[in-house]
Structure formats: C-alpha cells, structure tokens
Amino acid sequence: MHISELDTPALLVDLDRLEANLRRVAGYCSEHGLRLRPHIKTHKSPLIGRRQISHGAAGLTVAKVGEAEVMLSSGTPDLLVAYPIVGESKLRRLMEVARKTNVTVALDSLEVAQGLSSAAQAAGLTIGVLVEVNLGLNRCGLDPGPDLVALAAAITRLPGLRFDGVQSYYGHIWLNKPDGPAHFEKVKQGIAQVQEDFRKAGIELKIIGGGSTPTLFHSHEIAGINEIRPGTYVFYDSMQVAAGSCRWEDCAVTVLTTVVSTARPGYALIDGGSKTFTSDGIPGAAQPSFGKVTEVPEAVFYNMNEEHGYLDLRQAGKTIRVGDRLRIIPNHVCVAVNMHEKAYGIRGDNVEEVWPVEARGKLQ
Amino acid sequence: MHISELDTPALLVDLDRLEANLRRVAGYCSEHGLRLRPHIKTHKSPLIGRRQISHGAAGLTVAKVGEAEVMLSSGTPDLLVAYPIVGESKLRRLMEVARKTNVTVALDSLEVAQGLSSAAQAAGLTIGVLVEVNLGLNRCGLDPGPDLVALAAAITRLPGLRFDGVQSYYGHIWLNKPDGPAHFEKVKQGIAQVQEDFRKAGIELKIIGGGSTPTLFHSHEIAGINEIRPGTYVFYDSMQVAAGSCRWEDCAVTVLTTVVSTARPGYALIDGGSKTFTSDGIPGAAQPSFGKVTEVPEAVFYNMNEEHGYLDLRQAGKTIRVGDRLRIIPNHVCVAVNMHEKAYGIRGDNVEEVWPVEARGKLQ
C-alpha cells in the first residue's frame, strides 16, 4: 500500500530509520559494556519492544502496570517499572505480571517499599528494587546522602524484595545548553558520591542506572553507570534535534496530515492539532513551533487547537492547496504516539506494516 | 461504590454539576429563542449527548467523522460536522452516517463543497452546508465580504447540497480581558455585515450559528445569531474560570490522583501528568499551573511530565503523604477527557455510573 492510500492524520514510522536508531544504540551500549533496558514510553508497542530485545536489550522499562501487562507479549525476560507503585489494585496486577517475567520496581520511599514487600510476600514472589536518586531534575528520588543509604538498608531487610541498586534520570540536561555541561558534572559527582556512600555502608550496588536520550552517547563518561534506559532514541523528534542529540535525518516518525483550509491568504490549516500531536512545545524555543513540516521547511507550525494545526506559509515559496498532504515531525514523539491507535511502518512511500499502539493511554 | 475504591488516575464527573450546567444552558437558549447544537468535543460520549438532547438540544456538533459515527447511538436527530471534510474515505463514511441521521457540514472552500457534492450525489443524499465565517480567530473561515457570498452562491448550485447558512466561532474572546469587549463588538459587526451582504445577494440564511463557552450567555446580544454550539459548558474547567465564564463550583470534572512521592521536602509528585491532563496551560496566566487541587487550594501544580505531576506544597499548610488522594480540576477539560478510556459519574463520593469515553481519540 502507498501512503497516499492512508486516511489522515496517520502516524508513520520510517522502518529504516528505526532500525538504524536501534542498531546505533545497541552498538554503543555493547562497546561500553552498558546494560540497555530501554523505556517503552516512546513506542508503546510490544512489536518494537521485541526488536529492541533482539538488538541486545536486556529487558524493557515501563512506567505503568498497564504498560507492563501489555509488554509481556514482547517476550521480554525482564521488566523494570520505573515508577513508584502505590495502591492494592496496582500491586495485585503487578504480581500477576511478576509471575510471568522478572520484575523490578524503582521507588523512593519506605511506604512504597513496604507495600511492595507485602504484595510480594502474599504472592510468594521476589521483586527487585532500585532506589531512585535525584541528580538535579527534582522529580522523584532522594538526594545522594544518608537518607538514600538508609532507605536502601531498610529495603535489604524487607521480605519479598531484592535490593538491586539505584537508578537516576537526568532528562533535563541538554549538553548544548550553556548550563548543560555543569549539570552533567553534577550528575557525575552525584553518582560518585552514591558509590562511595554505599561502599562505606557495605551495601552492594549491582545496578547503577542512568538514562535519558539527550545525554545517551555520553553515558560512559559517568563513572559507575552500568545500565541505561533511554526511550526517545527509537524515533527521535524535533525536541531531540533541538537538544543536539540527533539529526533531522534520524527522526523516524512523521504524522501524515491533510490541508483542510487555505481561506486565509498565506496560511493553511491541517487536520492535526493538539489531539494528534499534543501541545508540547520545545523548551527555550525562540518562537512557538509545534512540529517540522518536512515538505515545506520554511512553513511555521505556529499554533494549534484540538483539531486544527495552523501553518504560516508566507515564507514558504510554495503554493499549498486544500487536499495537499504534509508529513510533520512532532515536537515530542512520546506524547504524539500516545494519541494514535495505530502506527504505519513505512519504507520510502510504501506501508510495510501496521501495528496497534497497544500500550497507548494506559494511565494506571 | 465509593470513589476511594477506584484506581487512579480516574476521571470523575459530578453528575449534579453536570445536570445543573445542562439545565442552565438549556434554559438560557429557550429564553432567547436560540437553537442549541452543542459540540461533543468536551464529553465525547453518546450518553451525555442523549442528555443534552433531552435538555432541549436540537442536535449535536462534532469535528470528525469518527465522532459522528460514535454519536449516532445518542439518537440525535441531527449532526453538524463543524469541520471541512476532505478525502474519499471520510466522505464515504460520512455518507453512511447521513443515511441514519440528518447531516450538515461546515466548510470554507469550493474544493471541499465539490467533494461533498459528489459524494452526496453518488449516495443519493442531500447534505446541509454551513459556510464558515472568520470573525477574528483567524482559523477556518472566510472574512465577511464578497468571497463569502460567492462561495455560498456556488453551493446553492451544487447538486446534493442544501445551503443552510453560516457559522462562526469566536472562542478566542474572553470578555474579562481588556480587549475582549472590543473583539466582541467586531463579532457583532461581522454578523451584521454578513446578514446585509446575503440580503443584498438574495440568499436566505436559515442558520446563523455562533458559539463558544466563554461568551455563551452573551450570544443573544449578537443580533442575528439563532444557533449556538458550545461544548465546554457541560463540564467547565480552570480555563473557563479564568475566562470568567463559570465559577469553581460549576466545574463538574476532577481527575482523581494519588501522591506517589514526597521525597523532596515541600513538594509532592502525583500519578498524573501530561498523559492524564495534557500539557495545555491557561493563556495569559501569571504563573504556570496545570490544574486546581481541590483539597489543597494553596498547592501549585507547577510542572508536569508524562506520568508525573509536580506539586509545590510549601504554602499548603497541610501534610501530604504518599498514598494520599487528590482531586484536580484540569485546565482544559476537553483534551483531558480525551486521555481517558472511562468516566465515573459521581454524586458526592459515590460512583453512580461508569461510561466509556467512546469518541476518545477519533482522529479521522
């Protein structure tokens, strides 16, 4: 099938680019002895999870129990739930997942560890635990220091749990920003301090996990990190180009749209807005832009509503008509993929595969 | 079932508030002789569409053919597709809908009208048409003037179509903003000019449609408007409170969330971020806020990632613990509802109904 036969908006995945991205990161991890446990938040599909595993990933990372349930069909030998799991219902479902594959949970509080311990004991299972370290993002995680060691020590004493190590996430760091390198230095210092603290406390760190796509290829510079869990690298997006972590030619996802109105001279409306792309912008961008129009690089995607994308074509030097189709690289591919029920795998202009975005919208 | 038995995040709809909102707008339209054809973009559920009809709505409005298909089960006598429908696949599906209920399409180009005419002729159907007028939003629509009249005249000659009148949308106008009243005056002048132009051209305007929730209760001040199609009024949200179009007590939707981390003193993370609420902000807000925490009004929902909501509790004067549940009024309820598979209808703290958000994610 040719892509012109698809109705719009439609999510297209360039399979050659996807495969090149998978290969490149697998090669990097292999070269530097890093365990790869990629986050499925970006693709949300067991089919791509399976390809990541066949490219050497040791397991997969998810945020939600609902994602873990879906990812079982990828055949992954190992699932990291990189999110504190709270509440009986989620814990019960997680134990069902843990009967089918190895499960590790990342958390940052004794309350969450105790809930997990009770659930694991009741189920007769052992769940791995990583303690989350805050290295400047100020999201989940304890700062390096005695509270972090104390939580780890408490976990080693909780039945049903196996303390595996620590994880951190530092997706706020763009090395091409003025303050990027300084923040990255703090990550290195933080990981060094954690290792020193745990060594003194006599607690082994089997896993010291890091991640994030913007600093992916610098992971080996952080002494001690032995596992990474990037997500966005499979598809990349406009934000990753802005972060300097990829080129436009690496971006595997475009959204195929149709021009529905050119009533206003110099402008056009496309049939994709925030319900198709989400309204995520690019942090620090000089002018608002909601995506890159591949056919008309001078077009400015300057505004959106739920069903409308607003293009400024005054500098485009090209006539755009109602019915024309435009392929747009989203700002933030993870959230854009989440808006689509299906993905179309293409080579050139041919649709080779169609798959459901199975873990789409799994909020719980 | 008590809401404490629900897993989170979960979309809660206060049924008393919903019913009060439906009654208030139905009463207003009845008092002023306005035909009400509400937009389902906010609730995306045939069940609520049916209640709108039982409260006096003459029909329903949708943006996508996929929404029209879903809304058939509401039993609506009439569907307005307020979006230019482009492409054979969508036209074919729309004709199937038009075999089951009356269909009208809003459009702003001869290309779209011709496509619709061909499809209607082939199906042996007659489709109503409204021509979209731009009254300052600069989205779809022709400006008042000769091009608008010419398009309408052309449509009256196209087989399979029935020219019904014009529609406009002016959701950019918040009457509590400094420039709001002046923009609203321009809407009145625009509608007056349109009526004068069409009178001169001898083309009858059966329908002069307006809409938008922020100016809803001022619709009767625009001389000539005889139909409105507001959407957000069923649920309202933080943005509508900011626009001065409702009170907090009118907001029917809250998202039930759970606190998953309090590792950082003075802050908390909840299990809902942009995948639950979307990242829509409030235009012109002094500080970023992603929703109103009903239990802790001093909490500032200052940041979000896909799965994390960041709360600043330093002014909250209340201790928040992991596992606590918080109900949050979203900024933009239409896009938030779109992220949820199910809605829970509650009275007080009891869940009385559960329904699927059936038209969720209908991109095509």
Explain this structure.
2 copies of one chain form a homodimer. In chain A, 29% of the residues lie in helices and 23% in strands. With 364 residues, chain A is α/β, with parallel strands linked by helices. Chain A folds into 2 domains: 3-9 and 245-356, Beta Barrel (Lyase, Ornithine Decarboxylase, Chain A, domain 1), CATH 2.40.37; 15-235, Alpha-Beta Barrel (TIM Barrel). In chain A, helix 3 (65-71) packs parallel to helix 4 and helix 4 packs across helix 5. The longest helix of chain A has 22 residues, at 180-201.
List strands and helices in order, with pairings:
The structure is a homodimer of 364-residue chains.
Chain A: E1 10-14, H1 15-31, E2 35-36, H2 46-54, E3 60-62, H3 65-71, E4 78-81, H4 88-98, E5 102-107, H5 110-123, E6 127-133, H6 146-156, E7 161-168, H7 180-201, E8 207-210, E9 227-228, H8 238-242, E10 253-261, E11 267-270, H9 274-277, E12 291-293, E13 300-304, E14 309-312, E15 325-330, H10 333-337, E16 342-347, E17 350-356
